Amino acid sequence: MNELIRQIRDTARRLLEERQVELVLGFEAGPLPLRNTPCFARSADGADRLTWDRACGLNLAVFLDGPARRIAILAKGCDSRAIVNLLKERRFARENIVIVGVPCEGMIDRRKVERRLGETDFDDARFEGERLVVRSGARTLELPVAEVLRDACRECAMPTPVFYDILLDGATARIPAAGSEAASPADRAERWQRFEAEAAKCIRCYACRNVCPLCYCRECCADQSGPRWVGPAPTPADNQVFLLMRALHLAGRCVDCGACIEACPVGVDVRYLFKRMEREVRERFGYESGRALDEKPPLAGYGTDDPEDFITDV
Amino acid sequence: MTHSVQDPTSKNQKSSAWQPRILAFLCNWCSYAGADLAGVSRLQYPPNVRVIRVPCSARVDPLFILSAFRRGADGVLVSGCHPGDCHYLAGNLAARRRFALLKALLDEAGFEIDRLHFSWVSAAEGGRFAELIHKVTEKVRALGPAQPLAKERRL
Amino acid sequence: MRRGTITREDLNELIRRWTAERKVIAPVRRDVVELSPVGSADEIAMDYSNTQLPTKRHFFRPSEVLLRFDLRAAPDRHVVEAESDADPTVLFGVRPCEARSHTLLDRVFLREPYCDPYYQQRRANTAVVVLGCTSAGPTCFCTSVGGGPNDHAGADLFLTEIEHGREAHAAIYLLDVVTERGASLLTGFDLPEADAGLIEHASRAAAELAATLKTIADLERIRTAAQTAFDDPVWQAICLSCVGCAACAFLCPTCHCFDIQDEVSGGRGRRVRNWDACSFAHFTLHASGHNPRPERHQRCRQRILHKFTWFPENFGAAACVGCGRCIRACPMGNDIRRWLEAIGKKV
Amino acid sequence: MTMDNKNHLHAPVPQDTRASTASVSSMPSLSPREQKPISNPYLPLQTRVETIRVETDDRMLRTFIVRFIRPDDVERFRYRPGQFAEVSLLGRGEAPIGIASSPTEGDALAFTIHRAGIVTTAIHQLRPGDLLGVRGPLGNGFPIERLEGCNLVIIGGGFAFTTLRSLAVYAMAPHHRGRFGRITILYGARRPGLLLYRSELREWQERSDIEVFVTVDAAEGEWSGRVGFVPAVTKDVAPGSDNAFALVCGPPMMIKYTLPILSDLGFPPERILLSLEMRMKCGIGICGRCNIGPKYVCRDGPVFSLAELKKLPPEY
């Protein structure tokens, strides 16, 4: 057991024993390699199940408005930013949650591993320093961790939470890579092809929406039936409208935690749309999602001198 | 699993018979009145625009716009009061943020963004409205029938 | 049942013949292994664990036109039945669990007196060539639900690799002719009889593989869960981290719920059925606002009991083939095997 | 409960293209393009709206009398009381609606439709002469054969009275009346303006061969009839349970309080029949949303005996 896991368990146990919280949200080992699953720890026993490694890619903030009144949550940098946004949107009371910040080394993109293997199944995966060793049947593959990290993690500027109640000592926090937002093709038709190809994969299971802590509408526009804005059929146009609307509804709110990409069972990845929204919001409105609790969300207000470069003039 | 919903006769070719169908959301207080003035002043502009009157440009949810394209509009125009002139003080300023993001998003996705226009037309600007419709219609016409996002052009 | 041997080379020749006269859909390795129409045998992956998506979408489309209508036509011609696209097809190289799932879906879609014509036509026009398993994936539990690496249910032809060969084309397979339809695929092909030793060897290998698969305890007893554990808190406990998406249902080879919607534009339109799932809250929502299953644990319970209690009651087998896709697909890492074990302790 | 297969919308599946559920490997041989046309249970039959009657003073319920456009569809749609149909408006969708008419009333069908969702709201906009799709008849209906020779106690509340009306009219028809014993009808609504089929109820009350009790929760206007909740009136009237069936349809609260009274009156659960409502799509037991445990309301129901329901989970 490594030092970080020991800290996590100790902290969880203490919070539960001191009755500061009823529940600690963390991760425990999942049924499959590289798949830690949410752990709902309510006792010292539960706390001892908690674990941590580079396969804790889900965003636990999705459970914050649920199963208990006072909750402690283990939060990576991106998770803590999601919590900031949820607090701004008054989803729960600040005093009811204890944020346990976990410095993040970056999470594995399972899809990248699968693509390297050419299989969705692997029997075993373990970390050996900066290498990931994956076994599938008789094949063993050694991959440098850096190559199979999520793009979001490779580009993450805030891997260590900036908003927390307790910050665990993670001297291992990685140094963020230089910002390298994946460039989109300059050619419009190529961009459309890319989007069309991603949207075509979508089966409309809504895993992306449902794992997203910020996608909490009581009734999603994709489910509304009167009027029916987005058809429920996984047809090209309906998928495209769904994905575009999701990106738009998360503009200025998405924290690039990557949970939706991780969740997708068929590998739809439209992170670049979300990144474009992030960039626009930053450049146009000077706003960073989840940076500070006292910054007003850009779409909750307006500016008198916002750029008008997109306006058709005559 | 995909259904062919496109009409092969009206797609892929910019025949002279084809006329773009443009949906315009006009705010009740300025742009709709501007359109009215254009009509009263007998200004000529292309008949390709179908107008939906809305109380304010801020009433226009991006979902309306995507839905219009999904249902086969070739172009969409949203027009409201000039910044500072909003009947509801700042509706158009709030809308401006949303539209900026929508347009950037569609650009990123590779949608032909010249199909989507935002503008400001006041109640006194009948001439400007006619000019705007000329400009928008020509831009959309140049692009031909909309393909991306369109589902229900012909079922 | 006739049993012969066939080399990969001869198999490729057969596939070439099939592609000339019908559609051949087979596993193809892209990013991961996917079912896809193929033009030649070279594209087919024969060395794979399982495809990302199940074969049900071939018979039961994610979105399917049930009828078309034109409100401008004469009143008795408003409705036009959707044209069939059930082309003659060979579904080649699918896993035994997939073929088994077809036999389960048959029980629903072809149950008398109603017969789903869209499903029926595709089923009637599709031959299934199964590739028996020689290894098991980490989520496989087919033996727990009546299947197995050598399960012939739903197969028209059944292939078992008996010699891997140094190079791909050198592989040798045992070929079982399971049905008439399978035999018709071999018309004009001289299939050498397999010798008893080979058959013996293949079935021993399959049995050994089956023995390595962990079985789920108490699965039989779970059939009584609706009676004995319907109100048990176990349902709330297992579904704590379920977020209510449909990844499990849409990737399940046997889940078959659907929705029917009309799409219309300018007087013309179509009535379409789309996949739907019991995990969605609006699945059972009445127009009045009443919902028989408003809570998440009720919906999880529905999913489990439908598969392991009620489907067996109605159709004589669990609505599960143990492919394990739901385990892999679950974004929250829920594992149906753990769920079943937890429930099994309560019945 | 037995199902009358003769009544179904389409011909049986041809033997050679039918997959047996018993044996898993009996699919037919494959020959290119061999597709027999089979009748399609998803296709609606087109009807034309003949008459529309506003039933209640809140205008939320209307009765639509419709007639098939193709004369031979009448024969394809032979139904029994208690069955329902997927009523559809092309472009809007389908909604499951109980058949309010009785097969004894001729070729026209009646649907009394509550305006609730998208489809029913659109149907309420229809005018005489408009088209309405009808897919069915679906469901088991009331078990007429079992009811034969028995007394019928028909208890309805609010707008759930539609299929009970079908049964009542069926049983009262001259050539059927003799097949049943005493017929007692108890029907209630919240107030007089919400009673369905008011003029018909008055006619029934004139008849000597049936007993009709109409009640409202609260009187208003010129109402001179009974005032009281259906369960209370049931207790009051106390229909005998000897050789009798109780057929109950109504809102959940009415059912909840009526059932114990029926038990007290000596009705065994096997002889209390209820007709259920559930969200449905396919109507033929495939799409999976109207189940109560292993039973599909669309296919195994909508009529269940209380004895059957007691064996099912309380999820409806």
| Secondary-structure content class of chain C | alpha/beta
Largest two-chain interface:
C-D, 80 and 65 residues
Q: What is the terminal-to-terminal distance of chain C?
A: 41 Å
Total number of beta strands of chain C? 11
Order of helices and strands of chain A: HEEHEHEHEEEHHEHHHHH
Q: Enumerate the spans of chain C where pLDDT stays under 50 for 5 or more consecutive residues.
A: none
Q: What is the mean pLDDT of chain A?
A: 91
Please provide a written account of the structure.
The complex is a heterotetramer of chains A (314), B (155), C (347) and D (316). Chain A is an alpha/beta fold and 314 residues long. Helix content of chain A is 32%, strand content 13%. Chain A contains eleven helices and eight strands. A five-stranded mixed beta sheet of chain A has the order 2-1-3-4-8. A three-stranded antiparallel beta sheet of chain A has the order 5-6-7. In chain A, strand 6 (131-136) and strand 7 form a beta hairpin. The longest helix of chain A has 15 residues, at 3-17. The model of chain A has no long low-confidence stretch (mean pLDDT 91). In chain B, 36% of the residues lie in helices and 15% in strands. Chain B is built from four helices and four strands, in the order E-H-E-H-E-H-E-H. In chain B, strands 2-1-3-4 form a four-stranded parallel beta sheet, sandwiched between helices. Helices cover 33% and strands 20% of the residues of chain C. Chain C has 13 helices and eleven strands. In chain C, a hairpin with an 8-residue loop joins strand 8 (157-163) and strand 9. The longest helix of chain C is centred in the last third of the chain and has 20 residues, at 296-315. Chain C is globular. In chain C, 58% of the residues are buried.
